[in-house]
Design a protein that fits this description.
The complex is a heterodimer of chains A (143) and B (133). Chain A has 143 residues and is mainly alpha-helical. Chain A is globular and about 45 Å long. The two termini of chain B are 20 Å apart. Chain B is mainly alpha-helical and 133 residues long. Classes of the chains: A mainly alpha (143), B mainly alpha (133). Chains A and B meet through helix 1, helix 2, helix 3, helix 4 and helix 5 of A and helix 1, helix 2, helix 3, helix 4 and helix 5 of B. Chain A: Keywords: Membrane, Transmembrane, Transmembrane helix. Chain A: InterPro entries: DUF6691. Chain A: This is Membrane protein. Chain B: It is found in: Cell inner membrane.
């Protein structure tokens, strides 16, 4: 059951990514690039997703456990720290270069473009390197 | 602003929110695509549901292309720029514990100070690069 629901959740999200055209990096860049013909669509994608998620999350806030798992697993950290800020800057730089964040890039793989495949493989390499060299370790070594 | 597509954006956003909410209600998990995908590859524990989620991501656009006949989208060229961007997105989402879905939707959706901060920062960095280069 967990497997089927996880599949369905991924499916719904990438259907949304496709329908909203966020799967098209040109569409995302038209939002991020304020210097050209600005396209505010991405703001409405986020607004729509946030409205559904925040209301839903508020409605289930007192539930003791999720439907098909033992407990809710929420992040333990609550305050912003250096790795969060540095990571967000690096992610944003990469996002603005091509217009891909992880969801749209993975969703677009089925189109069979070598550019998309190259991006995703480089992204996986980045995940691997970040696991090998946690930013907290690099920061403590530098300071 | 002639390229503005408000209806498609809101409908698509609703689907994204529903998928993310389903994962929280049913499995109690944050729908962070970068975290789920990287752990599907690099962590044995909990691999099956994470792989199923990634398969769902891959199938979604195929389903849409069956339902909407004129569905198409552009893809980037394979270039040094594309590879560097992928590497930065991988490093940044791993070090920063999340991407547009995990921080931008799930995190902000539960009013997490970390996620609100992260989203403002990566949006600003994205706007900076996309507007200048």
């Amino acid at each position: 059951m967990q497997i089927f629901i996880a599949f369905l959740a991924g499916l719904l999200m990438s259907v949304g990514i496709a329908v909203s055209k966020m799967i098209d990096p040109a569409k995302v860049l038209a939002f991020l690039d304020l210097s050209g013909n600005w396209d505010p669509s991405l703001a409405l994608v986020m607004a729509g997703a946030l409205a559904v998620y925040s209301i839903g999350f508020w409605l289930i806030r007192h539930k003791p456990a999720p439907v098909v798992a033992e407990k809710f697993q929420l992040p333990l950290l609550s305050k912003p720290d250096k790795p969060l800020l540095i990571g967000a800057v690096i992610f944003g730089l990469g996002w603005g270069l091509v217009g891909y964040c992880p969801g749209p890039a993975i969703s677009a793989l089925s189109a069979g473009s070598v550019g998309t495949l190259g991006f995703v493989l480089a992204m996986i390499a980045g995940w691997y390197l970040a696991r090998r060299w946690p930013l907290t370790k690099i920061i403590s070594r530098l300071s | 602003m002639d390229n503005f597509t408000p209806i498609a954006a809101l409908v698509g956003g609703t689907f994204i929110g529903l998928g993310a909410l389903l994962l929280m209600v049913a499995l109690g998990r944050v729908a962070g695509i970068s975290g789920i995908s990287s752990l599907a590859i690099f962590q044995r524990e909990g691999r099956s549901w994470r792989l199923a989620f990634v398969v769902g991501l891959l199938v979604g656009p195929l389903a849409v292309s069956v339902l909407i006949s004129d569905f198409s989208f552009s893809t980037p060229e394979l270039s040094l720029r594309t590879v560097i961007a992928g590497l930065l997105v991988g490093l940044g989402t791993a070090w920063g514990s999340g991407c547009t879905s995990g921080h931008g939707i799930c995190g902000i959706g539960r009013f997490s100070a970390r996620s609100i901060t992260a989203t403002l920062v990566f949006m600003a960095a994205g706007v900076f690069v996309a507007s200048l280069f």
